[in-house]
Amino acid sequence: MKLVVVAAGLSVPSSTRLLADRLAEATRTSLGDAEVRVIEVRELATAIANHLVTGFPGPALADAIDAVTEADGLIAVTPVFSASYSGLFKSFFDLIDNTALAGKPVLIAATGGTARHSLALEHAMRPLFAYLRALVVPTAVYAASEDWGAEGTARTDDLPRRIERAGAELADLMESRARTRRPADEAVVPFAQQLAALRTG
């Protein structure tokens, strides 16, 4: 199973990357085993800008896009600015073909300085991936500054429990999708090829 994590944090160290790593670990734990690759969008910023104006991706950007489109599951994490995802995050996904994520399990998450930005997951990120026809897990994870180390309330889980639940949901969707794929030995044989085999037999 290939799990790709897209982290759009702008600083080093980054709370966005920290959340991305914890979500990846929770998903891998639920899967039992998975190949995990993290794409730091910040490192591709110049290549993304060049691609947007020239239409040609550099090798590193092309490799990142291929990794996202070939993944069995995707974790997408962005910082929130002005109640929406970052421009860099959006620019990266603008370069993904709008059919490449169809049916792909995706876990969305975000970080921000205040809990007031948490609805960005529902009014910005979820519609973006719905447009791309991805299969977004029910639990979206938002981490405000005060969530790190907090115990939560009676109405909301604490951050570790939300991370664990979201990771388990993504793992379930990845495994379910893998089970429904047609095995290679059951591939559909074109009708003309079947007729040719009958004639030679």
From TrEMBL:
<dbReference type="InterPro" id="IPR029039">
    <property type="entry name" value="Flavoprotein-like_sf"/>
</dbReference>
<dbReference type="InterPro" id="IPR005025">
    <property type="entry name" value="FMN_Rdtase-like_dom"/>
</dbReference>
<dbReference type="GO" id="GO:0016491">
    <property type="term" value="F:oxidoreductase activity"/>
</dbReference>
<dbReference type="InterPro" id="IPR051814">
    <property type="entry name" value="NAD(P)H-dep_FMN_reductase"/>
</dbReference>
<keyword id="KW-0288">FMN</keyword>
<keyword id="KW-0560">Oxidoreductase</keyword>
<keyword id="KW-0285">Flavoprotein</keyword>
<protein>
    <submittedName>
        <fullName>FMN reductase</fullName>
        <ecNumber>1.5.1.-</ecNumber>
    </submittedName>
</protein>
<dbReference type="Pfam" id="PF03358">
    <property type="entry name" value="FMN_red"/>
</dbReference>
<dbReference type="InterPro" id="IPR023932">
    <property type="entry name" value="CE1759_FMN_reduct"/>
</dbReference>
<feature type="domain" description="NADPH-dependent FMN reductase-like">
    <location>
        <begin position="1"/>
        <end position="148"/>
    </location>
</feature>
